[in-house]
Amino acid sequence: MRGSWWDGRRADSPATRQRAVAALTALLVSGCSDTPDRPEPTPGPTGASAGPNAPSATPPGDPAARAAALVATLSDEDLVGQVLMPYAYGDSATKVSPGSAAGNQALANVDTPAEMVAKYRLGGLILVGFSADDPTKGNQETTNVDNPKQVHELTAGLRAAAGRLAAGPAPFLVGTDQEYGVVTRITDGVTVLPSALAAGAADDPKLTEDAWRAAGAELAAMGINVDFAPVADVLATRSTVIGSRSYGADPKRTAAQVGGAVRGLQAGGVAATLKHFPGHGHSADDSHQDLPVLTQSAAALASGAWPPFTAGIDAGAMAVMSGHLDARAIDPGTPATFSHKLLTDVLRGQLGFQGVVITDGMNMPPAKRWAPGEAAVRALKAGNDLILMTPNVGQAYDGLLAALRGGSLPRARLVEAVTRVLTMKFRLAGLPTAPMSTLNTPAHRSAAEALAAGAVTVLRGACGGAVRGPVTVTSSGGRDGTRAALTAALTAAGVSVKPSGGTVVHLVGYGDGDGDLRADAAVTVAMDTPYVLARAKSPTLLATYSSSRASMTALAAVLAGKARPGGRSPVTVPGLPATTCGT
């Protein structure tokens, strides 16, 4: 058997799956439609892990049964709160700066993240942040991640607040965008993997799975149980917002990588989220700015965009993120986030996904066409189960509650969504959680280094062989840290490095173009998408697709002549082969 409807996989047959969902939904609706409103939850002791109905609400058994029992006890307010997953200001659950308090007041009429959890009976919270090269920074309003100890304390505080709620028996969801590469929220004190495109270049799903298992264990150790990764988008265009976040341009190879990442991440104790359905890589536009249009036919999307999503579903991915994308061939003019045709008919009906569907950030322009309350209702009715990053928590909560009580939001749809969310929570409760001592261990670093080493690609020049020393490392502006990392790695590999006058190894990365190239460089290295190499004049062209420390160590080994660059470019660079190292 390939899996049951509640474990995120495709069921044996659509008819069987539909009967199971219908039966459970009918049971739950009849069990909770007349439930009187629950009074405000009574605060329990700090660190409490159960709500007032804990003994009867969490029977032993499979996650779906536990979810069904708990849903039947929840009030309207509890149900609405469970489908909200906003962000918050502050790096602590209970103690924040005046500026963070002001941000939370504007967002949710509370001072602290813990108060937000309690007031709106939230199902989860996303931890946000950004870096200089981050293409998602447009909707990252703040940052509340600094270092692993701080993250661990923050997540513990959030769980303590959530444990006092009626839904407290189900673990609180704490998510973040830890994709690695240009979108990496936590970078200090953890094992940092190379980018998805680097994994695509290595083209070894086992290496990807091993690296993501290490990543999942470290996220779980810090108290994060949902990762908004892997990116399942096929890089069919030169999208700068997706770029090296994708595993590549080939649907089949990308699918294999996505499957490996899902298996590894969830084996480490963290729910994987496939994004951005129906395929952000099929448009070069940025949904953080406007509504990208997918002009491909439905058949072209099915064959070119959806295989990685199908592979992730088959690997057991617990969640899929809907994208703010206009698939003209399927539901013209409607962002997929709000499209019943795409999320219910295609994702659930055609692809068979039965896990949790999560919106992309609702604070992004395509979702802000409507007020927060109306947007949340529309997203839920389309088939989403979790509303992510609403621009106003109170308005989203009130809008959902009013729609539920007014009848425009069917109770069956809300109950179905909450049941899926709670089922995922109880599944996560059964996964392993590593101790904090597992962070950045030699074994984890080794997994990241193996993946990075497999990625290094030579697109022009000899296949291997040491660069003539001494070496001078240069780069486009703002990459001092990366230059220092490569310099240290080269020195450790026995290569002499001098400030000037040596053989020039020039680094280019995210956002760089022709003007960032260096005509006199003997070696030019692309640390993001390799397209810029088409205009580089260097006799030797290499790609690491990533500027992580592991990638710089792997690059140094190739430059020192101690490793063979065995990667293949996962995207086509005009005028250059995928590799000069054979097939």
C-alpha end-to-end distance: 38 Å
What is the share of helical residues?
Answer: 25-40%
What gross morphology would you assign?
globular
Mean pLDDT: 89
Alpha-beta content class: alpha/beta
Strand content: 5-15%
Tally of helical runs = 19
Brief characterization of the structure:
This protein has 583 residues and is an alpha/beta fold.
Describe the structure.
There is one protein chain. The chain is α/β, with parallel strands linked by helices. 38% of the residues lie in helices and 10% in strands. The chain contains 19 helices and 15 strands. It has helices at residues 14-32, 54-57, 63-71, 76-82, 98-108, 113-120, 148-162, 196-202, 205-221, 251-267, 298-304, 307-314, 340-350, 372-382, 393-406, 411-429, 442-455, 480-492, 549-559; strands at 84-85, 124-127, 173-176, 226-227, 271-277, 293-294, 319-322, 326-327, 356-359, 387-388, 457-460, 471-475, 503-508, 523-526, 540-543. It has a 6-stranded parallel β-sheet. A 5-stranded mixed β-sheet has the order 11-15-14-13-12, with helices on one face. α1 (14-32) packs across α16, α14 (372-382) crosses α15 and α17 (442-455) packs across α19 (549-559). The two termini are 38 Å apart. The model is unreliable at 1-57 (pLDDT under 50).
Give the helix/strand layout:
Blueprint: H1 14-32, H2 54-57, H3 63-71, H4 76-82, E1 84-85, H5 98-108, H6 113-120, E2 124-127, H7 148-162, E3 173-176, H8 196-202, H9 205-221, E4 226-227, H10 251-267, E5 271-277, E6 293-294, H11 298-304, H12 307-314, E7 319-322, E8 326-327, H13 340-350, E9 356-359, H14 372-382, E10 387-388, H15 393-406, H16 411-429, H17 442-455, E11 457-460, E12 471-475, H18 480-492, E13 503-508, E14 523-526, E15 540-543, H19 549-559
Parallel strand pairs: 1-10, 2-3, 3-4, 4-5, 5-7, 6-8, 7-9, 12-13, 13-14, 14-15
Antiparallel strand pairs: 11-15
Helix pairs in contact: 1-16, 3-16, 4-15, 6-7, 8-17, 9-10, 9-17, 10-12, 14-15, 17-19, 18-19
